[in-house]
Amino acid sequence: MDDLRRNDQLDEWDRGSFFHPSTHLAQHARGESPTRIVKTASGVHIEDRDGQRWLDGFAGLYCVNVGYGRTEIADAIAAQAKELAYYHAYVGHGTEAAITLAQMVMDRAPAHMSKVYFGLSGSDANETNLKLVWYYNNILGRPEKKKIISRWRGYHGSGLMTGSLTGLEMFHKKFDLPMTPVLHTTAPYYYRRENDAQTEEQFSAQCAADLEDLIAREGADTIAAFWAEPMLGTGGIVPPPKGYWEAIKPILERHEILLVADEVVTGFGRLGTMFGSEHYGLEPDFITIAKGLTSAYAPLSGSIVSKKVWEVLEKGTDENGPIGHGWTYSAHPIGAAAGVANLKLLDELGLIANAAEIGAYLNAEMARALADHPHVGEVRGEGMLCALEFVEDKDRRRFFDPARKIGPKVAGELANLHVIGRAMPGGDILGFAPPFSLGREHVDEIVGSTVKAVRAAGL
Ligand code: PLP
């Protein structure tokens, strides 16, 4: 590591050799865009190679939920690597860490869930759930029931099928996505409703009617599953409008459409409850987990299946032999050891209760400081998630020309003040998803700096 720290060629190597995800490749290679080479981190702060520090208001990519520098997790990873760095989980094999974590996940999952399959990323966990949805309907003798409905503005990953489930244009454009059989329905995004006169409840009823229409057009016996984050994340940090889930759930039940709750962001406490499904009263057939499972100390994800689904999967293997699905790194013991230590820390430090309390303070303070600003259309959030949406004309809900890049500009000014917020895709939206260990003094800094950044961006 010391060699790397002294290395003054890293900038050059970064531009010359490193293919970054979700990056303007040409600008980066030409050296036109800023880089940040992060060296270390502690608590809610990250630090670069020059010793500059930022308050990380987005917990990496809303994943470092317990905060940075937790030696309990680092020690658990080191101990596992020394004792057993790897063994696979195929054909009934396991490791102490993976089995223990499975039990801890199921102890925390809603009571009607049965088992957890471990992968590496949110994308691959959604891919696993997708395969299992198809397998389920094949075992039940419903080979036509295969289409999947997700929502515009949903984010479910960036693989071929998971990128198709994602309802954001930048993840489709020039990649020939979405692939069939994925269909998208109305985003539960009240602020961007077309009809000004609608109440939240009326808008929710319209979302439900749009879903009913889509199902009727396609034929209910061709629709396998509805894929949704309990609350929209990357699509804008948007809590569901009043009455939304109450209107959607009966439609899915009536047409025997499985519900897959993508809890990659909301799982393990981000809404101030263990799962977003509990938060909104959902009883999903599948739950996708990742980020908060290990607080990103090691890559690990999970696909949790319900008892109803599990019974059919067992029947499937009785009829067809072992399930043909697995990766070399499924249930990797180092990730599992990180998960065990992470879930213990969440409990011991009461971090989910802190996320609820401090998240409420963050949302209230942000609203107090900026809700009346003429270019802030909405301040919204839930738990430890908060967003501001910038608009050109507040009264008419007219948005800025995307070419002006107002959201990224505010995020840039905020970074100049040493606070990180995220310019979300699909609008001028500044998002916050801090670690759960955030304190009131950090909230005051985030809000104070955001006010200054909005001003510095010329709004
Ligand atoms: N699902 C949701 C709700 C997400 O927010 C993300 C990532 O942000 C994913 C899935 C994909 O997870 P990963 O980036 O680990 O593949």
Automatic annotation (TrEMBL):
GO MF annotation list: pyridoxal phosphate binding; transaminase activity
Keywords noted in UniProt: Aminotransferase, Pyridoxal phosphate, Transferase
Co-factor(s): pyridoxal 5'-phosphate
Superkingdom field: Bacteria
UniProt-listed InterPro entries: Aminotrans_3 (IPR005814), Aminotrans_3_PPA_site (IPR049704), PyrdxlP-dep_Trfase (IPR015424), PyrdxlP-dep_Trfase_major (IPR015421), PyrdxlP-dep_Trfase_small (IPR015422)
Pfam families: Aminotran_3 (PF00202)
Protein name: Aspartate aminotransferase family protein
GO cellular component terms, semicolon-separated: cytosol
Upper taxonomic lineage: Bacteria, Pseudomonadati, Pseudomonadota, Alphaproteobacteria, Rhodobacterales
Family note: Belongs to the class-III pyridoxal-phosphate-dependent aminotransferase family.
Keyword Metal-binding: no
Keyword Repeat: no
Organism: Palleronia sediminis
